[in-house]
Amino acid sequence: MISCLNGIYEEYNRYIYHLCLKLTRNTAEAEDLMQEVWVKVVRNEEQVQKVDHVKAWLTTITMNTFRDRYRKNVRRSKYMMSQPETLDVPILDLVPSNDISTEEKVEKDVVTKIVQEKMHELDAIYQKTLWYFYVDQYSLIEISTLMKVSIGTVKSRLFRAKARLKEILLSDSSLKDVVMA
């Protein structure tokens, strides 16, 4: 098991560090956050073998750890009357929250349904590529292996599929209020 964790560390250490740095915008805090993430990974080492997509799992742990640290800092700062200096609000907006309101859930379900319906208007190859990438969360390498094409082809298909899906969504006049250009 330890060699498994060593391999994961070797493969994803730089990625996790850069993600932490992007979130904190401070090298010292990024290193602290990264250390906290790896401690959680080691504590949950029995989960590693159950994980299909290690990178996505590590990203989730990183984002959740960052969000927890941010919340703790905000709670603490209410008493100290100062906000964290390294707070990067646009990045925080991207951090998913576990607390989703009923309205947000309904809206998300409606949008998901619309996008899935419109995906059926795409060519099958584009549907499959989008599905693998966004729903199944396969990496580009995994998709290229599954589809027996080069990574460049997968990237091209993703780009074309997203552009075509956007065209389809924008061309539907009933979705004017839902879709932004």
UniProtKB/TrEMBL annotation:
SUPFAM superfamilies: Sigma2 domain of RNA polymerase sigma factors (SSF88946), Sigma3 and sigma4 domains of RNA polymerase sigma factors (SSF88659). Residues 114-165 form the RNA polymerase sigma factor 70 region 4 type domain. GO terms for molecular function: DNA binding; sigma factor activity. Keywords: Sigma factor, Transcription, Transcription regulation. It holds the Pfam family Sigma70_r2. The keyword Cell division does not apply. The keyword Transcription regulation applies. Residues 8-75 form the RNA polymerase sigma-70 region domain. GO terms for biological process: DNA-templated transcription initiation. Belongs to the sigma-70 factor family. ECF subfamily. PANTHER family: RNA POLYMERASE ECF-TYPE SIGMA FACTO, RNA POLYMERASE SIGMA FACTOR SIGV. This is RNA polymerase sigma-70 factor.
